[in-house]
Amino acid sequence: MFQLRPEERDYAFVPKVAHPETNRYGKRIQLVDENDALAGKSLNINGDSGISSNPDRYKQHGFYFNADNCISCHACEAACSEKNNLPAHIAFRSVGYLESGSYPAYQRMNISMACNHCDDPVCLKGCPTRAYTKFAEYGAVLQDPDICFGCGYCTWVCPYNAPQLDPVAGHVSKCNMCVDRLEVGLKPACSAACLAGALDFGVIETRPAHREQLEARIPGFPSPEITHPNIRFQQAKSLPREMRRTDSMPLRYERDEHGGDFYKPKVAEDGRPKRWNLKKLRSREDPLVIFTLVTQLVVGAFLTLFLGSQFGLEVLNPAAHPVLHATLLIGLLGIETVALVLSTLHLGRPHRFYRAFNNLRYSLVSREVAGVAMFYNMLGGYTLFTALSGALSFLPAGLVSGLGTLFGWGAAISGPLALYFMHRIYRIKARPYWNHWQVLTSFFGSMLTLGPLLVALAYGWTLAANGAASGESASELVSLLALPMLLGLALEAIGLLYHARDLQKEGGEGAAAHYLQSTDFGYAYLARNIGLGLSIAGAAALGMSGTESLPGMLGLSILALIIAATAVVGRALFYVCVIPTTMPGAFFWRNKGFQEHARETGLADMPQVGVVPDTH
């Protein structure tokens, strides 16, 4: 148990006060009854098997933040970091702020934020390794770094910056509500250390002494409907109609005159010019750029080969061009293997990739991994019983053929299903830029475009080179495969058009991300759109006329380069432009702009700056 100091002051203890039966979301505050099977168990803190006698042990606790009192002294940050022995680049609790006006008519509102131990913890549901648990004790959402393999998905879905991905240690960790202190009746270290009485703690829905409000919203705080967080606020002092962030996010918060004192996020258009910023298209998510595009290409190419032969396209029948067909299948299996290996490089601990299957019940990441694994194995089986059937001559020919067909239909079903789960990963409320049906049209559009394009190139060049001798023409096949390519490109274009329109209409972080895309990456965004237009025109021309000769195939190859470059730039923009519903940072701390400056100037080489030089 945590050792109480003899001189511990009264303000450090959690007050014992009356509370309602349910919280504002209708959930019971008493999480389990005293005679419940979950009660009376030890948390085994530091190996101690003792059980606390705290009468409020099984009640949902939470933080209370009074923005009127916060002076931004960062004592809460320091106390948290000291207690948890955190490195300078990790902070479970951080203090950011919003500001308005200019001197002398300047106003600032500080916000101290850590994990809110939500009623509906999206981090727990999203984690593929089941590293998160919501305990009946105090309602704490705890995370085990030893189970985590560092995918960082919990950092995507959490609206409050609570889980911290440590690129040095290779895992995520976060606030643990100081459950060891709670077991002996003490408040968490951060609230006990608060100098101004701004940060408090207790059973949720209870108001500390001498406080007036018990609100679930505050300017800069994301919608509580996402996770039902266990934090309550007071902000009674008058604020201006508009508050600005001091970090690099192009966001401001404007009071909704028709909705009380609620502040809505808006785009902070600061007149920044359009740029290429090609270097900044590189990010920690580069392995995912490759993995998603390659997987969509492989699924599309396989469906083209398999369904084409199943529905009477004789030129794609394995028997028509056995060497080419076998080479393509083995090549698809090979590049998907490379993509899967690259996807593990996105993990902080790649050697623990197998833990991705641990949470199939809740985690979309686990379902995506299972779907891709199923498709990969079915593709391998189809390749074995089709492309490599000569090595299985000791088996009956009918059995080999039947197994090939069985594995083929398995891959044909599991491939699109894997892409569906892949798209679902990005439908995140905490990332409005991604939370749009355009992700579905983009992923399946890439499948319909890239897969048939690869098959058209492989078969087109072969038929164009050998057509005179074999009597076969490349034109008909290429013309036919141009149709799904055109459909895929059209899906991509329609999705992007509605995506931009809807983001600007809805405002908030999604519109700010689109503003970032149109300015900081404006020329890259424009080049992607031009490339998409040229790709559609080229695919339409192929569909009408096909290609008959080697010069025609050269034109198809140039079109393929345009389509591939457009896809890579578009997917890179998808990852680098997203703005989550983050809590405001400060001028130096939790500021992406300062982090980039620190790495460019060498400040990141000093550990005390709190920025790691290598962001992987």
Describe the structure.
This protein is α+β, with helices and mostly antiparallel strands. It has three domains: 10-241, 2-Layer Sandwich (Alpha-Beta Plaits); 279-576, Formate dehydrogenase/DMSO reductase domain (Formate dehydrogenase/DMSO reductase fold), CATH 1.20.1630; 586-616, no CATH class. It is 43% helix and 10% strand. The chain contains 15 helices and twelve strands. It has helices spanning 75-84, 122-126, 153-157, 179-182, 189-193, 286-310, 322-344, 364-386, 397-424, 438-470, 474-506, 508-519, 522-545, 550-576, 592-601, and strands at 61-66, 94-102, 105-113, 132-134, 141-143, 164-166, 171-173, 199-203, 231-234, 242-245, 251-255, 263-267. A hairpin with a 5-residue loop joins strand 10 and strand 11 (251-255). Helix 10 (438-470) packs antiparallel against helix 11, helix 12 (508-519) packs across helix 13 (522-545) and helix 13 (522-545) packs antiparallel against helix 14 (550-576). The longest helix has 33 residues, at 438-470. The protein is globular. The two termini are 37 Å apart. The model has no long low-confidence stretch (mean pLDDT 90).
From the 3D coordinates, which CATH architecture of the largest domain would you assign?
Answer: Up-down Bundle
Q: Could you please say which CATH topology of the largest domain applies here? A: Formate dehydrogenase/DMSO reductase fold
β-strand number = 12
| Rg, nearest Å | 28 Å
Indicate the overall shape.
globular
Q: Spell the H/E element sequence.
A: EHEEHEEHEEHHEEEEEHHHHHHHHHH
Average of the residue pLDDT scores: 90
Poorly predicted tracts of residues:
none
- Total domain count: 3
Give the spatial strand order of the biggest sheet.
Answer: 3-2-10-11-12
- Biggest sheet character: 5 strands, antiparallel
